[in-house]
Amino acid sequence: MRAILFLTACSTACAVSASAMAGGADSFTLNGAEEPEIKAWTEPASVAFTSNNGGKDSWAVNLAGKYENQLSDNSTSKLVVRFAVEKNTQLKKEVENYGASVGYKFYWTDARDGPTPDLEAWHLANEFSLGITDKAVFPDAKAICTAAPLPPECTEQRETSLRAQLQVQPYRHGWDKTFHYEDSTHTKLKGQRWTRSFTPVLSLFYDEILDAKADAAGARADGGVTGLKLSLSGAASPRVTNYRLVLSAKLQLTETLSRSVGRRDGFQSSATLLKLGADYEFGPRSFENGGNKWVPSFGIAYTKGDDPLAGKTDLDNTVLAFKLTYRN
Hints:
- The protein is mainly β and 328 residues long.
- It has 1 helix and 16 strands.
């Protein structure tokens, strides 16, 4: 495990409403994780650069943007456009991924109509998307790179794939317990001893390589992978800290249903990714509405495991970070 301490040069997690454009039907969010919905404690986006005299400079970039447009005033369905950028040369295995997608989001519920909310109802937020991903394949550190010209495993390559994905996010009353303000001055919070949130997301995906990397023999292993990804995310904040401290955890399980012959070596049949975090906000609050605010926070995050869809393998790192969050 290796620890990385950095100061974000630019870090934002903003939810900008473009209500003037379409009567409140448009929205844009920018954060640090490509999640279906944004929470008050969503990980901020971050950009960090380290310049080393006489050595190699390093980057740590994590951005995910989402634009949503409500298709009509009488519909809850939305058009969703996403992009994601992740570049990290500070890890044991470098990561450089880019992605963009267009999707359709729709909702379902079995709630009964009535004067009071149906607390036993199930709600589903569903999103189908089609996108392009592009990732860097870095030189193999174990390869023998003395021949001329250099073999493919000694050079940086790129791999592009087409990805179709269906995300299903269930929700039920009680999975979120939040706070409220004590009075109209909005200066003191009260509520549950522990506020909490639980967010499961199940994804069915198909990933087809359009432009594959070359192996040692110069052959390009392409083909498709079909699989399931289950993400279980939770967060909690204690009242004793005025809900400024957020403890979070995320467990991601990936299981393939089928893999073409060319993808079996480079895409694991099953993988697990665990992320634990603790962040403390000081100064203005990120979840308060009104006004433009920079919110400083300090946090620690530990990540271990593999994410084959993102091209991440053998992760085992700890990040300590001072962050600046901007919310409009």
